[in-house]
Specification:
Blueprint (H helix, E strand, L loop, with lengths): L2 H4 L11 E5 L2 H4 L12 H6 L17 H15 L3 E5 L2 H4 L9 H16 L3 E7 L5 H5 L7 H17 L5 E6 L1 H10 L10 H25 L6 E7 L2 E2 L6 H24 L7 H4 L9 H5 L5 E5 L3 E2 L1 E6 L4 E4 L16 H14 L5 E5 L9 E3 L2 E3 L3 H19 L4 E7 L18 E4 L4 E4 L1 H11 L1
Parallel strand pairs: 1-2, 1-14, 2-3, 3-4, 4-5, 5-7, 6-8, 7-11, 11-14
Antiparallel strand pairs: 9-10, 12-13, 15-16
Helix pairs in contact: 4-6, 8-10, 9-10, 14-15, 15-16
This protein binds D-gluconic acid.
Length: 453
Amino acid sequence: MSQEAMSLSRAAFPANFVWGSATASYQIEGAVREDGRGPSIWDTYSHTPGKTSEGDTGDIACDHYHLYKQDVALMREIGLDSYRFSIAWPRIIPTGRGVVNQKGLDFYDRLVDELLKNDIQPYATLYHWDLPQTLQDAGGWTNRVTAEAFAEYADVVSRRLGDRVKGWITLNEPWCSAALGHMMGMHAPGSRSVHDGVRAGHHLLLGHGLALPTLRRNNSRPDAEFGITLSLNYFEPGDDTAEAQEATIMADAFSNRWFLDPLFKGVYPDVLDSMFNPHLPIQSGDMEIISGALDFLGVNYYFRSMPLAVEDANTFTLKTRQPKESQYTHMGWEVYPEGLHKLLVRLHQDYAPAKQYITENGSAFIDTLIEDQSGPVVHDPDRLNYLRNHFEAARLAIRDGVPLAGYFVWSLMDNFEWAYGYSRRFGLTYTDYPTQRRILKDSGKWYQQFLRG
Ligand code: GCO
């Protein structure tokens, strides 16, 4: 680690750089049947036997729906400038379209007010995977109507919160919804069909494009900004064979360019033509709607991938090299901060978004809660180092000219990690699920010191 990284503090970043942390509705809120919330595809999926680790569900999660005030106090204690959360569509419009549930809107209203009262800027994601089940029953994202329903929902939410939310993010990681949810069956709704995945991806992009002008129109905060968040990987060939080079090009197209190219260039990458064209439901005008100007690109970065070969050409399942000398997280993801630096520079060169935010970055490691004289503590040096080294990578990207505007650590607290249930902990804060106590880990305390300078 460089000397700068050792002594890193927020002073090494531009003065207006935004530091925050991120969560998502289904992962933390619980209260799934409260105040009129309708069921989502993640309720259905997590309650289907065999889909999640230990059969875990988001029924209670971190009980943030009830504990939000205390959670905002925790953010303030850490010293966050901003907080990225997501809004549960089934709380707002329980059946996806039509009747609006005021009590659902009221919850986010209270949350946003509480954040502002504590000087924390709200960044709201409209869709972090919890689609109302009623829409799924009519085909979900494979049905074009869902894109229109999404824009209506965006309208309802922004009419209510458009005077206070600072950052609006339409979708979180549409690649995961399309590929993991529709092609690989690893996320809700759990289908395994290239046809469905390609259609879902297009309708997600369309929903984003339709929602964007609505959000701008309903906004009355002069400094508000509008973007989308993508999961983006840093790929490097696993060796110098032609096969590895080719696999890397294809993996990059499938994982990164599938969403980047339509958003920034108004076209799908042509290397995907043979896989995509038979299924793409493009109608006239769609690509213009999809490629409307963004104020920022949200980047979720976690690891490097080193393709050796494409194992399954239908879903681009890869055979990869996993360097022995590297460290891996509890997810099995290689720790590779340099990949963040290189990814941000590449995005700037190839797509030149007006701004970039790191909307997620963080790591799962096995944590142990221990009691010492001062009370409960969690020593998590691996997570602390992960953060510090990725912060340093972000600093280098800024030095290299990337208009990086902020950084949201995933996650504020341990939470429901999708198919992994509660078996993976990403938090700056340890969630003691039986008691719902939150315990700031060493990494959280380090972040606090970093922010104090
Ligand atoms: C995401 C995320 C989070 C995950 C995190 C760790 O946007 O990928 O959806 O919800 O918990 O990425 O896997």
